[in-house]
Specification:
- There is one protein chain.
- The chain has 305 residues and is of the alpha/beta class.
- It has two domains: 38-155, no CATH class; 183-304, no CATH class.
- The protein is 46% helix and 11% strand.
- The protein has helices at residues 2-29, 38-43, 49-57, 78-84, 102-117, 120-123, 156-175, 199-206, 231-244, 246-253, 257-269, 298-304, and strands at residues 61-65, 91-96, 128-133, 140-142, 146-150, 183-188, 191-194.
- The strands form two sheets. Strands 1-2-3-5-4 form a five-stranded mixed beta sheet, with helices on one face. It has a two-stranded antiparallel sheet with strand order 6-7.
- Helix 8 (199-206) crosses helix 9, helix 8 packs antiparallel against helix 11 and helix 9 (231-244) crosses helix 10.
- The longest helix is centred in the N-terminal third of the chain and has 28 residues, at 2-29.
- Bound molecules: zinc ion.
Length: 305
């Protein structure tokens, strides 16, 4: 009996340890990316002492404007086509450890090509874009008008995917926004989302509020594991998946009415009914944790879309 008790206690400890370490493992898989209000980005961002010293000694490489380069037309609508002709002026900061290098220039060129490949009505919401040439930053961060992107230690494919994921956040928060006084159940940090924000319709498909999924939500209602983090990551992951992995999105949506509704929402409200094929053949429609790590045919995206 006592032996059984000891065995039970030992088993209980083992279970608790497994749960604890399992959770830690799960947490370590989470991409270190969150949305921050601008103030927090500027003041509370963790930076090592070395990085702070480097910034103090070598302030931002001068702010430049990206030239307006509306070469590619994604959307057929006349209104949107006209919008593409408007100037896109983005304050671009490049923060490098040391002097600007070919790596910086490569990253900058890639970012500019990506912005050019997307409809201006979406990218025009980006006012500030900061590129970091250091591994000490998370891969990407954004809010309604600002994007930060780490250029170091990422393949070109990943960099472009992360940028598009971040543009998804900017579209969600800066492009689809409401102006009413009634606050919805959704808040992004200190940002209150009004009920007339179009995105609320998207959030409500799977979410009760900013933290809790709806009771009926299931794994198949999301494009990735990371999309299940909160309504805003759900939007950004779905945005990225729609644009770069369209065929797979449609395939997965066959298994879930909710996912189909998310696809239809993006089609109607964001992409002006334009649909896309996956850029890699042979994808199986398998769900992944993070859509920005999926392979893409980068050249095809940058040249054809
Ligand atoms: Zn995100």
């Amino acid at each position: 009996m006592r032996k059984n008790l000891i065995t039970s206690i030992a088993l209980l400890f083992l279970t608790l340890a497994a749960v604890f370490f399992g959770r830690n493992l799960a947490q370590s898989l989470v991409v270190t990316e969150k949305l921050y209000p601008v103030e927090e980005v500027k003041i509370a961002r963790p930076a090592s002492e070395i990085f702070k010293t480097m910034l103090a000694a070598n302030p931002f490489i001068p702010v430049r404007n990206l030239p307006a380069v509306p070469k590619v037309s994604l959307l057929s609508s006349d209104v949107l086509a006209a919008e593409k002709l408007t100037q896109r002026a983005i304050n671009l900061k490049v923060i490098a450890e040391g002097n600007e290098t070919t790596a910086t220039q490569h990253c900058e060129a890639l970012v500019e090509k990506t912005l050019t490949a997307l409809p201006t009505n979406l990218t025009s919401k980006i006012k500030d874009l900061t590129l970091y040439l250091t591994e000490r930053k998370s891969r990407g961060m954004s809010n309604s008008h600002l994007i930060e992107l780490r250029c170091a230690d990422m393949s070109d494919e990943e960099l472009v995917s992360v940028l598009i994921h971040e543009i998804g956040h900017t579209v969600d928060l800066g492009y689809l926004h409401g102006s009413g006084n009634i606050v919805s159940d959704f808040t992004d940090g200190s940002l209150l989302i009004p009920t007339d924000d179009v995105s609320v319709e998207f959030y409500q498909l799977s979410w009760k509020n900013s933290e809790k999924q709806r009771f009926i939500a299931s794994r198949t209602d999301f494009v990735s594991g990371y999309a299940m983090s909160d309504p805003f990551e759900d939007f950004a992951e779905s945005f990225n998946f729609y644009l770069l992995h369209g065929s797979d999105f449609r395939l997965l949506a066959k298994e879930s009415e909710t996912l189909q509704a998310k696809y239809d929402f993006l089609k109607e409200n964001v992409f002006a009914r334009k649909e896309f094929s996956s850029l890699v053949t042979g994808e199986s429609g398998k769900r992944v944790w993070d859509t920005t790590l999926l392979p893409i045919a980068l050249q095809a995206f940058l040249q054809e879309s």
